[in-house]
Design goal:
The structure is a homodimer. Chain A is of the alpha/beta class and about 625 residues long. In chain A, about 25% of the residues lie in helices and about 25% in strands. Chain A contains 16 helices and 27 strands. An eight-stranded parallel barrel of chain A has the order 1-2-3-4-5-6-7-10, surrounded by four helices. In chain A, strands 16, 17, 18, 19, 21, 22 and 23 form a seven-stranded antiparallel β-sheet that branches. A five-stranded parallel β-sheet of chain A has the order 13-12-11-14-15, covered by helices on one side. Chains A, B: Belongs to the class I-like SAM-binding methyltransferase superfamily.
């Protein structure tokens, strides 16, 4: 199946529950009719006789198959076969003997599937309203010994979210075990509430079953999916890259259908996925990948990093617009006044070019200053000055927090923002730089605001948990979200404004308390359905100048801007969010003489005022994560 | 204060909120009137002026006291002073400046208290209905740097459990930080619901404030406590060994009271605590101490261990009674029949003596067999045979699971039970031994049942968490409970019966599946109040013979029997239990060829059917804890 797992193609399998005596023939027919693999029982249902075993029966000592008990007997087809585990197995039976025999038979079947080297086994369908707790225990233990063969839990999606609730319990019991995936069977009618669909993007959906019965006939009698099904399947394909599985009906239910029609339609949907936009293309390969946030004050960016960030088509356009409008507002047309603009943290000079273009367009006279602390980038600035800018730009090699200017400037331009706005210490840097600014000087950006929202993502939780230490659970990451479900629109935590009038004129701040922040935001996720939370998503919105803004906040995201992925704050324990409850997030920005850090915490309160979950405060005293000053 | 912390005496302090100019005098008077220490403000309330500071004020750069701002100026009295932190500090103010200044002032005050070497500082009282989240963050961080000085959070107990709920949130936010204690102030009216009192036994109550206003006058006009207050205070003294703190009223509210009366009464209560019973005496020093359960099959008990267990006054009395009744039932008075009794796991022989005494008392003829696998204990058996038993007892050196007998016996007597009944593998041992037994033979014990209940205990949770690894969270411990709150009466999980008729006659079992168990028990903790759960308590009840039973189950505990402490199953994350919700515990007893282990899990479900908490299954596949076969 390796060919299909890269996300370039789409594997479509054919599912049967019949126990074929001649499985080779069935597999051959399936492949001949264009399917990439089959999903079939491994063991004949007649083997269910073993459920009757009692203590003392020798089968219990060493379960063994007769050849005739097996549908799959040889490893020959193993790379084209997903094995369905026997539906008659009752791991949660209240009858001790049946439960014990079921466990033996289940283990026997999985062991045989692993022996054959099948790429996956699929559990019997979870049945909402019945217990799956012993099944969770058995599978949780079994997967520790499975390497090649995957374990997929079969979930039939429903309108009432009951299947998700049961899977949620199963996932909780098995502690988000990354070796356990979901095969999601779609129902004829999808839930109306989009959140019930979105919830699955946060789950480890490895495969999707689209039974032939849920196809409708198009005017020509061919099977197609409803618009709503199409849309959901396409989103699943794009975000989860699942294996797809269809069935072929035993009687003709779509007039013109052949055994190939169902897989052809799925393949057709996949071929016609909308092309990736610029941001998606840029992010390709980075989805759900945890990056430690930059430490641009302590570390110097390398050339590659500058190169990447300079490619953003939107960011510099907006900066140019901001400078342009600031110049128009500040200086009358035709004036001889030379506006002094300083770019602090000029890097390799993209903002300098923005300013020059803005000045040309605005027809205003300007003198540019470019300040940079990175000696390597400074060489590039020197090249640009020698080759392009000449006298229009003065270069200054210095740390903006320490440099003493001999002249004051009109407009201070910087691009020091991180995914969470202030997380790369823009406030502290600009506090130091604002003493270069005239009393009526302008800072671009003028302000920026951090946002946060609760989110679900089994994937991201597992990525963090895989490190098995506290430090990684208390570190925010820059992540391009993909297999996630935002549980509520994000809310503003705090804002920084520049210049900061609290700081005495012409002085460096003597402490950093004015950049401390504490904010509490509350969310009602759903009045109707239970959900689960795995972490917190963070964004920023910045006002560059008046109406000129940039944003990575989902509701206002600057189209096409790719310089910033969102930020992800993990939580150490997933929190259940019962319907109607309130999620409260507390966020702090704290600093001491050497560093700045965040602490965060979350609580869930029921609609009756009981705390149902209280997270410990994360990153106490910056013990796990901080940004150096 | 070291004198009082051992639990032998009881320190009583005098609390004042007045800011005395001459603190030396106040301390001297307090001590002269029989108090052991004082609790006093450290800083004058006039220092609250710093709340008005703004950015740029130099105080913010380096907070410093004027000498006149301080109540406590010298370290001289430090070992007799608990410092009350300023009540005017508003760590959770919504005003940024007030909150930031409060944090600076709070840290300054704690730092000064640490500098003086005070034995503790006491926070301003938590105010239910207001936020304590920022206070939690500040304290959580501060205590990491405190070594000598303790941090006590002042909680005023109330009728409505609101104070507990707030403390519960505080404790959750600070992750049961063992450096943070509670000083519990008693109200004039204690809650009617005993559970609201009991809840505090699970909390780290380090001190108890008994304000003079809640004393009532006895007929002679002296201050005394109500019966209900007395009872609660005594329980607190016995279980928590808290420091006690009283106040002295400024006006005479109890006609005959002197400034000494309040402390005298508290000292009087402490002197008159009921004497410890035999079990308490035996357990003394072991309370809340986590012991790894025995592995008697893999390891041999040492002589000390035998010695300790043989001292139990009740256990052997009940065994003797069981054998006596079995003999009476089995053999007619005057018969010449010689009943063969075998003690398996005879150790140093106490059960052999029981059987001989029972036979003498019943006037029945017996032949005793004593089987033991521990070569060291076997020497003691040989001594006893040589010196006392002679021909009445035959010794067998063997493992009961493997020995092949040449004669069958009437009564099989064993004492293989652990705190959870089957946790020392009594079922597996007796399965092997029952082939010695005649068809109508009797096993003593005849059956045993394991019990479990949800419990709260910040102390036990912390003891486990201190190991900072998964293994300790997935290991059950034998513990004498003290600082705990049982959240509901325990429920039966499963029973083992002997002889086990499922095993084919005269054979060894070929597998151990008949000793696998799975059980689910559900509890409603409280319909009225929220609680929290930190772990699971486990017990057993055993039927030795018919009506002769032994039990460590709280409701049926055999009086005076001390051989078994309860068992404690930790959980990895404390679970909030909102009022009206249902706690479900799932327990498994699992085995493979070499070992037996338990797995356990818990869920909380709201009265609306939402899961509010789902614990991962603990000890998957016996990865952390098992008992070797």
């Amino acid at each position: 199946m390796a060919d299909f797992e890269g996300g370039y193609g789409c594997a479509v399998g054919l599912l049967t529950y019949d126990c074929f005596d001649n499985i080779e023939e069935f597999v051959q027919e399936a492949i001949d009719s264009g399917h990439d693999f089959v999903a079939t029982p491994i063991v004949h249902s007649k083997y269910s006789r073993v459920l009757e075993c009692k203590a003392g029966d020798s089968w219990r000592d060493a379960p063994v198959y007769d050849r005739g008990d097996l549908v799959l007997r040889k490893a020959q087809w193993s790379d084209a076969v997903a094995g369905s585990l026997s539906e008659w197995i009752q791991l949660d039976s209240k009858d001790d003997d049946i439960r014990i025999n079921s466990e033996l038979a289940f283990k026997q079947e999985v062991a045989f599937a692993c022996h054959l080297g099948l790429f996956t086994v699929i559990t019997p369908r979870l049945v909402p309203g019945t217990s799956c707790i012993n099944m969770a225990r058995v599978i949780n233990h079994l997967v520790t010994g499975m390497s090649v063969t995957q374990m997929w839990v079969h979930v039939l999606m429903d309108n009432q979210h009951a299947a998700w609730r049961q899977w949620n319990q199963f996932r909780g019991l098995t502690e988000n075990n990354p070796k356990i995936g979901v095969v999601l069977e779609l129902p004829a009618v999808l839930p109306e509430d989009d959140m019930l669909l979105d919830a699955w993007f946060a789950e480890p959906v490895k495969a999707v079953i689209v039974p032939s019965e849920i196809f409708i006939s198009n005017p020509k009698g061919y099977p197609v999916l409803s618009k709503r099904h199409q849309s959901f399947v396409k989103k699943l394909m794009r975000r989860m890259q699942p294996q797809m599985i269809v069935t072929v009906p035993t009687t003709q239910i779509h007039a013109s259908a052949t055994p190939s029609s169902y897989q052809e339609y799925i393949h057709y949907l996949h071929r016609n996925l909308p092309a990736m936009d610029q941001v998606e293309e840029f992010a390709s390969g980075y989805q759900d990948y945890l990056q430690a946030p930059l430490q641009p004050l302590m570390d110097n960016l390398d050339n590659n990093m500058y190169e990447t960030f300079e490619r953003d088509p939107i960011k510099y356009q907006e900066y140019e617009k901001a400078v342009y409008h600031a110049l128009l507002d500040r200086v009358e047309h035709g004036s001889d006044y030379v506006t002094k603009i300083m770019v602090v943290g000029a890097g390799r000079g993209p903002l300098v070019n923005c300013c020059l273009r803005a000045a040309d367009k605005a027809e205003r006279k300007v003198q540019l200053y470019a300040l940079e602390k990175n000696p390597n980038a400074f060489v590039t600035l020197q090249n640009a000055k020698a080759e392009e800018w000449h006298d229009r730009v003065t270069l200054i090699f210095a740390d903006m927090r320490k440099w003493k200017p001999d002249t004051k400037i009109d407009i201070l331009v910087s691009e020091l923002l991180g995914s969470f706005g202030d997380n790369e210490l823009s406030p502290e840097c600009l506090d130091g730089a604002q003493k270069f600014l005239k009393d009526d000087g302008i800072s671009i950006p003028a302000s920026y605001t951090a946002y946060a929202a609760p989110m679900a993502s089994s994937k991201l939780y597992n990525e963090v948990a895989a490190y098995k230490d506290l430090v990684h659970f208390e570190t925010p990451y820059v992540v391009m979200f993909q297999q996630v479900c935002e549980l509520a629109p994000s809310k503003a935590l705090w804002t920084f404004e520049h210049p900061n009038l609290v700081i005495p004129k012409d002085q460096d701040p003597t402490n950093n308390l004015h950049n401390a922040r504490y904010s509490r935001v509350q969310f009602t996720v759903s009045d109707k359905e239970d959900m689960v939370m795995h972490g917190i998503s963070g964004y920023f919105e910045a006002v560059l100048y008046k109406h000129v803004k940039i944003s990575i906040h989902p509701e206002t995201h600057s189209p096409g801007m790719f310089s910033w992925f969102p930020i992800f704050f993990p939580i150490r324990t997933p929190m259940q969010i019962p319907k109607g409850s309130t999620v409260t997030l507390d966020f702090w920005r704290v600093s001491d003489a050497k560093k700045v850090w965040y602490e965060w915490s979350g609580t869930v309160e029921s609609d009756q005022g009981s705390h149902t979950a209280v997270l410990p405060i994360h990153n106490v005293g910056g013990r796990s994560y901080w940004v150096g000053l």
